[in-house]
Amino acid sequence: MPTLAVGGTTQFGPGPAGPPVAAVIALAKRYDQPSPLETIGRSINDATFDAAKVSVEIVITLIGAMALWLGLLNIAKDAGLVDALARLLRPALRFLFPEVPDGHPAQGAMLMNIAANMLGLDNAATPMGLKAMNELQTLNPHPDTATNSQAMFLAINTSSVTLIPFTIIAYRTAAGSAAPESPLFGMLLATTVSTIVAIIATRWLSRRRKYQLEPSPAAPAESKEDAQ
User: Residue 3's beta-bridge partner residues?
Assistant: First the structure.
């Protein structure tokens, strides 16, 4: 039975030895607090659902821009602009990819990929990049090892010069930026320098004996046919 101790404090038990009610309430509040693991779990759960919500919002925002530029790239391909661009850039392609014969399907796929990357259309560049690597693999005499052309294409793809980053502009516009195109010059300068460094480094490494491979047997045959 509760008893009234000295000073008016209500206590439990037969005498003054019982704990005060205030201590019992404090102890109950302490155990009512969530544990650290429970707090971490709630934070992870909230972050997961917030990220899912944001990703859907970003995808919806980018659907229009991606559909537009993917359509334009397909129109350019069907209209023959890709082949015309390949002929125009043939000297550069021969310098960067000497193992790839003129007119090989890999050239068109690489040009489409590089053009998409220069426009900042990462998702549009991915299918053409995969197709280009598959076409380059047909010229590979060592299927388990990347050729110099594959290494060069990967280096250029990773450090590609960005002229107009449409995807980043769309991100900044969706985020409410007042000047979404403001980082254009800095990105152009940075990606130009990175691409030059990537080309020089890849070409230097390809000339080292440690990384040299035998030339593809398909390339000389194609060259002879072109010469005829």
Answer: 11
Whether residue 114 contacts residue 96, with contact meaning beta carbons closer than 8 Å, is answered with: no
Decide if 46 is inside a domain: no
DSSP helix, strand, coil percent of the chain (3-state; round to 5):
70, 0, 30
C-alpha span between 163 and 12 (Å, rounded): 79
Structure tokens at 93: 């392609």
The SS3 call for residue 3 is: strand
Any domain includes 116: yes
Domain count, the chain: 1
The two tokens of residue 109 are 């796929």
Average pLDDT per block of 10 residues along the chain, 228 residues long? 48 52 62 67 81 80 68 78 77 87 84 81 76 89 86 89 78 82 84 92 86 55 44
Exposed, middle or buried by CB within 10 Å (0-12, 13-18, 19+), for 133?
Answer: buried
Longest Cα–Cα distance of the chain, Å, equals: 116
Placement of tokens 């030059």 in the chain = 196
Q: What is the pLDDT of residue 121?
A: 73
* Structural domain containing residue 159: 65-227
Token pair for 12: 């439990």
Q: How far is CA 84 from the centre of its chain?
A: 29
Per-residue model confidence (pLDDT) at position 27: 59
**What are the E-state strand segments in 74-113?**
none
How many CB atoms sit inside 10 A of residue 165's CB? 23
- Cα separation of 186 and 179, whole Å? 14
